[in-house]
Design brief:
- Helix content is 69%, strand content 0%.
- It has twelve helices and no strands.
- It starts with a helix and ends with a helix.
- Helix 3 runs antiparallel to helix 4.
- The protein is an all-alpha fold and 260 residues long.
C-alpha cells in the first residue's frame, strides 16, 4: 500500500502535480527515456546492454514494478547464501596440499569472495529499491543496478562447480574422479540447455539489443535452435508487437513523444 501511494505521487508516473514542468527533466530522466525508446524499437544504433533484460518490467502496471525487482533480489540472495555455505567448505588451505587441490581451494576462495560481494550489493540494492518509486527513470536505474549482482552470481556458480569437480578428482582420483568431473561438465551443459530452451527463447527483444559478442553466446545458439531457427530480428519484432499493445500510459507517453 505504501509503495502504491508513493508511486501515484510521482509526476513521472503519469500523475499531474502542481508546478511540474514537462520541459524540465534531470539527466537521469533523459537517459532513461533514451533507453526506453531504444528498447521498445528495433533500432540498434546503440546497444542497450545487459539492463535490457529487465526493461520489460516497464510493461507491468507501475505499482507492480518495484516488487518484481525485490522478488528477484530476494531469490538471488537466498541462492547466494546457500552456495556460499557450500563452497566455503572447499576454500581451505593446508600444508602439503597437492597442486590440484590447491587450484580447487583457490577457485573456491574466489567464489566465496564473489558471493560475499554479491550479498553486499544485494543488500544495498534492497535499501535503494525500497526508497524508489516505480517511475520509468527508477525502473531503468534498478535494471542497471541489478546487473552486477547477477553477473557476479553467475561467475561464482561456475567457480563453485569447477572447484568441487577438482576437489573430487583430487580426493577420489582414478576413473571415479574423472567421472565426477565429467558429471560436473554435464551439469553445466544441462543448465545451459535449460536456460536456452526455457528462458532465452522468451528473451528475443532483450537479446536483440545486446552487442554482437553477447549474441554469440552458447545459450543463445540453443535458443535459436529451440525457436525453430527463426531469425533473431523476426522473434524480437514479434515480442515488440505483443509488448507495445499492453504498455502503461507513462511508457507510452515517452514513445509518443519520440513519434511526435
Amino acid at each position: 500500500l505504501l509503495l502504491d501511494r508513493r508511486n501515484r505521487a510521482h509526476p513521472e508516473d503519469g500523475v499531474d502535480a502542481p508546478r511540474h514542468s514537462e520541459a524540465k527533466r534531470c539527466p537521469r530522466e533523459l537517459r532513461a527515456e533514451q533507453a526506453v525508446r531504444a528498447y521498445f524499437s528495433l533500432d540498434k544504433t546503440r546497444p542497450v546492454g545487459v539492463a535490457a533484460y529487465f526493461l520489460d518490467i516497464l510493461a507491468y502496471p507501475p505499482k507492480d514494478r518495484v516488487p518484481q525487482f525485490m522478488f528477484m533480489a530476494e531469490m538471488l540472495s537466498i541462492s547466494t547464501g546457500l552456495l556460499l555455505f557450500f563452497v566455503q567448505t572447499l576454500a581451505t588451505f593446508e600444508e602439503g596440499m597437492s597442486k590440484l587441490d590447491l587450484v580447487s581451494a583457490a577457485m573456491a576462495t574466489a567464489a566465496v569472495l564473489i558471493f560475499i560481494s554479491v550479498s553486499i550489493m544485494l543488500m544495498m540494492f534492497g535499501f535503494q529499491a525500497a526508497k524508489m518509486s516505480s517511475s520509468v527513470k527508477h525502473v531503468v536505474a534498478l535494471g542497471e543496478a541489478i546487473v552486477a549482482p547477477i553477473v557476479g552470481f553467475v561467475y561464482g556458480c561456475h567457480l563453485s562447480i569447477v572447484a568441487f569437480a577438482l576437489h573430487a578428482l583430487d580426493s577420489v582420483g582414478g576413473t571415479l574422479g574423472v567421472g565426477i568431473c565429467a558429471f560436473a561438465c554435464l551439469t553445466l551443459v544441462s543448465v545451459y540447455f535449460y536456460i536456452g530452451t526455457n528462458i532465452s527463447t522468451n528473451e528475443a527483444l532483450p537479446l536483440y539489443h545486446q552487442s554482437f559478442w553477447n549474441q554469440m553466446d552458447f545459450v543463445n545458439g540453443i535458443a535459436w535452435v529451440a525457436s525453430g531457427r527463426r531469425a533473431l530480428t523476426e522473434r524480437a519484432s514479434h515480442e515488440l508487437d505483443a509488448m507495445t499493445r499492453v504498455l502503461p500510459e507513462d511508457v507510452r507517453r515517452i514513445l509518443d513523444e519520440k513519434d511526435s
